[in-house]
Amino acid sequence: MDYEHLSENELIEKIIAAKQRYGEDLIILGHHYQRGQIVKLSDFVGDSFGLSEKAATSKAKNIVFCGVRFMAESAAILAKKNQKVYHPDPDAGCPMADMANMEQVQLAWNKITKATNQKIIPVTYMNSTAELKAFCGLMDGIVCTSSNAEKVFQWAYERGSKIFFFPDEHLGRNTGKKFKIHQDQMLLWDPHGEKMAEDKEIKSAKLILWRGHCPVHMEFKLRDVKHVRKQFPGCKVVVHPECEQEVVDASDANGSTDFIVKYVSALEPGSIVFVGTEVNLVTRLQKLNPDKKVFKLQRSLCLTMYQINLSNLAHTLDNLDKLETVNLTQETIENAKTALDRMLNLNKTSLPNSRTELTSD
Ligand code: 13P
Ligand code: SF4
């Protein structure tokens, strides 16, 4: 059947019918950046941390993940043996995750660990390949998301004197700043650079940052924050920590997508707020908060999140018995799970899991 040519209503009917057919044997997980139609049909919507937790605890036999590839892979790593994880568009990757591959990270690791005897803890952002998570599992490292980066850095600095963080320079820099690490102690590792960092630079660094970024969050600039503050004195600005440090510093608050949802919802009725994150989430926040004026700081769309749509979701649900599941080697799953479990266990402690600055003015 050609799902691409079915009408929106026909596709929605098919998805609802499949959900009824499978009942408790199916869960649809959706990231906050998914289109509104997908969010409405998802059984659980959250940030990448919340979704990984849900994948780890769900009892459904079939998990359909509406998000980008690294998220579906993480669900497959955390799933039990009797569960299958499907991704409606296996080509929907994350450009940031693609900025670091195993070969490049291994090369950097060899150079860094040769330059110093000090213990280095590798920390990979959730937005990375399963192989890099497995590498961290093997090397006494850990995974973090934007909702728990501070807590993960704390964990890492209790075990080593340096962190090697990949692939998002900006989340790393923004988190390092919270630990009062001076810019001079943050070394930027450029996998495409002409010359490698020197041993003495590696020795004096507390935080080694991979040169990678999110194209969606690089769209938000300091001039945007300055502009809206001038136009709307007293307005609030909330951004994702994948934004550049100067943007994060100029904002009232920053945090994961889930944090942003809660931040906007907790504002006083009548508040004006500018949100620096993916446009599908901002559009939804506008609808969810009719008592506030919610604006985009800029219009920025994640094209690969947008690749998931009603037709590939309906097609997936109608063909669960025929389609390939998210497929990783057993060795990758085991080692990546070690690193993910370290993160999930950390979040069971009582520390807050988001950066909150609800009262800053
Ligand atoms: P969250 O972990 O905040 O959901 O972010 C994931 C992401 O890809 C942001 O660009
Ligand atoms: Fe990747 Fe950025 Fe899209 Fe998030 S918003 S999935 S980091 S490209």
Give helix % range.
40-55%
> How many individual domains?
3
H/E element order: HEHEHEHEHEHEHEHEHEHEHEHEHEHH
CATH topology label of the largest domain: Rossmann fold
Kindly name the structural category: alpha/beta
Low-confidence stretches: 350-361
Bound molecules: 1,3-dihydroxyacetonephosphate, iron/sulfur cluster
Largest sheet: 5 strands, parallel
End-to-end CA span: 55 Å
The H-level CATH homologous superfamily of the largest domain, spelled out, is: NadA-like
Write down the Rg: 21 Å
Task: Based on the coordinates given, report the CATH architecture of the largest domain.
Answer: 3-Layer(aba) Sandwich
Mean pLDDT: 95
Give me the count of strands.
Answer: 13
What is the top-level CATH class of the largest domain?
A: Alpha Beta
Total helical segments: 15
Sheet with most strands: strand arrangement = 6-5-7-9-8
